[in-house]
Amino acid sequence: MTRQYNALALSILVSSSLISGYAAQAATTAGKTMVVKGDVQAFETEADSRQLQRRSPIYDIDTVTTKANSKAQFRMTDGTLLALKESSQILISEYQYEPGNEGNSAVIELVEGGLRSVTGAIKSNNGSYQLKTPVGSIGIRGTHFEIELINGDMFLAVWDGAIDVTVNSGSGSDTVSFGEGEDFSFGVISENGEVTSLLEAPENFNQGHGSDNDGDDDGNDRDGDSSEGGFANNDGDDDGDNEGGDDFGDDSDEGVDFGDFDDDNEGGDDGDEGDFASNDSEQDSANQERLEGVLDINSPADPVVIENKVGEFTYSGLVESSFSSTAGGASNLQVNMTVDFDINFMTGDLSLTDNGGEWLALFAGAVDGSDLIIDIGTAYHGNEIADGTINGFFGDNGNRIIGNFNLFEVNTPTTSTTGSFIIN
After folding, report:
1. Is the pTM higher than 0.70?
2. Helix, strand or coil for residue 302?
3. Can you say whether residue 121 is alpha, beta or left, with left for phi > 0 and alpha for psi between -120 and 50 degrees?
C-alpha cells in the first residue's frame, strides 16, 4: 500500500513538473530588464516569484512588482520602454510582437503605483497597444506618456503623442483624449469616473519620475536644470546594480587609461619643459592645474547634474581612443550615441574595421545617474554574428562620454576586438 502511494505521489509530482515545464515553455519573452534599484520581482504565481536583476527577462504571463524605495526599467521586445515607480504592480496580459507584422498587440494592466512608457514598434506599425487600469482603459495613439494611481485616482501626463481614456462612469462609458491635437495633455480621473483636465502636469510627476515642464524643448540643452526624473533616475547611491561607471576599463584588454594625459614629457626629473619635477614652481603649478582639469573632465559626472539635463543630444566626435583586434589591422573606430535626457534613454552604434572585415554593434541603453547601462541588440564581424559588452559613463558635466568595448565572434570567441574611447 505504501509503495502504491509513493508511486502515485511520484506520478503526480512528475506530471506537475511536466505541466509546469510546458507552461514555462509556452511563455513568451516580453522584454528585458535594463535597470533595477531595490526589490523588484516577477511571477506567474507568487509561489514562483523571482528577483529581477539587470538583463533578467520578463514574460507575457508575468506580474511585475516594485517594493518601497525600488524601481525598474524594461526594454520590451518591440523597443518599448517601460519604467515602474516604487510600490507599483503591473500584469503583462499580452505581448505579441513579430518584426514586420501589423497584427502585433500588447495589453498591460497597471494594478497599483505608476509607470512611464515610450512605445515602440507595435504602435508605430499600426499594432494595438493598450493599458488597463482600475479607473479606465487607455488606448495609445502616441509615444510618451505617464500614469500614476494615488488613493484610487488616476493622474496622467502625455509628453508626446496622444492617448484615449475610456472611463466607466455611472451613465456608461465615456472616452476622453489627452495629448497632441487635444485641448489638454494632463489630467486627473477620479475612481468614480470624474475627469479633471489640467493645464500643467500634476505635481507628483515632478518629484523623481516626471519630465521638464518649463517649455524649453530646444532638443540640445545639455545644461538644463529643471528636469527631475524620467527613466532610470539615480538616487545617488552606489549599490552596484549596474556595470558601467567606475569599472571603466575592466572589460577591455588593452584599453587606455584616460586619466594619464602626461604625454608632454617622459616622466623623468631632468627639468625639461612640461616636467612636473622641474625647479620652476610657477610652471609646475600651471602644468599640475592643467592635468587636474583633464582628470576632472574624464571623471564620472555628478549624477545630480545628469538628472537635471533635458533634451536630446548626439555624441559622435572621437576625442581619444585606443583599440585593437586579434585579426590585426584595426582602424577607423566610430562611435555614435544619441541620448534623450527627458526619458533617460540612449541608442547608438559602434564600428571599426580590421583584416577580417567590419565590426558593427547596434545598441540601446538607459541613463542611470552618471552611468550608461548599455545592451547590445545586434553585432557582426563581417558575415559572422558577434556579441560582447559596451560600458560607458558621462564626464565633463555630461558633455562627453567615456567608454570601453569588448566584442567577439559567437562561433569563434577568440576572434575579438577591444578598446576604449572618449566621445563628445
Report:
1. no
2. coil
3. alpha
